[in-house]
Amino acid sequence: MDDAFRDALSQINKPAPHELITGFKEKMTFIKTRYKHSEKNVRSCLAGLSPTPTLLELLTAAFVINGGILFKHGPTPDEEEDDDKELSQLIQEIEGLSSHEIEEPDPH
Predict the structure, then answer these.
(1) Which of 14, 36, 65, 89 has the most CB atoms in a 10 Å sphere around its CB?
(2) pLDDT tens digit string along 66-102?
(3) Residue 58 and residue 24 in contact, taking contact as beta carbons nearer than 8 Å
(4) Mean pLDDT of the chain
């Protein structure tokens, strides 16, 4: 199928591929270990998955773990540009400091 969305809809209630399930469970275990505040939700999701979870089950678990957020948001292009400018300015300042040797006082 050439339509990724329609293809996913046709697959959503079928068992997810084994590799996807394995990677998903590994990621959930990592989240449980790394982010202690998510441990209860991870345990709930893992316990709720059927032995051969569907794509819908995996997506629902991801939705629960992400706090109901459908999309992860990053900085806007303007914010990204500002960050780049600040980083460039910081690098220039550091280079300026390193190019000026600090004179050591004569110990005598």
Answers:
(1) 65
(2) 887 766 555 667 766 777 787 788 777 777 776 655 5
(3) yes
(4) 83
* pLDDT at residue 94 in the model: 76
Side-chain-facing half-sphere of 61: CA atoms under 13 Å: 25
Q: What is the 3-state secondary structure (H, E, C) of the chain?
A: CCCHHHHHHHHCCCECCHHHHHHHHHHHHHHHHHCHHHHHHHHHHHHHCCCCCEHHHHHHHHHHHCCCCCCCCCCCHHHHHHHHHHHHHHHHHHHHHHHCCCCCCCCC
Q: Which residues pair with 15 in a beta bridge?
A: 54
Q: What is the pTM of this model?
A: 0.60
Q: How many other β-carbons are positioned within 10 Å of the β-carbon of residue 12?
A: 14
Are the C-beta atoms of 25 and 46 separated by less than 8 Å? yes
Query: How would you class 30 by CB atoms within 10 Å of its CB: exposed for 0-12, middle for 13-18, buried for 19 or more?
Result: exposed
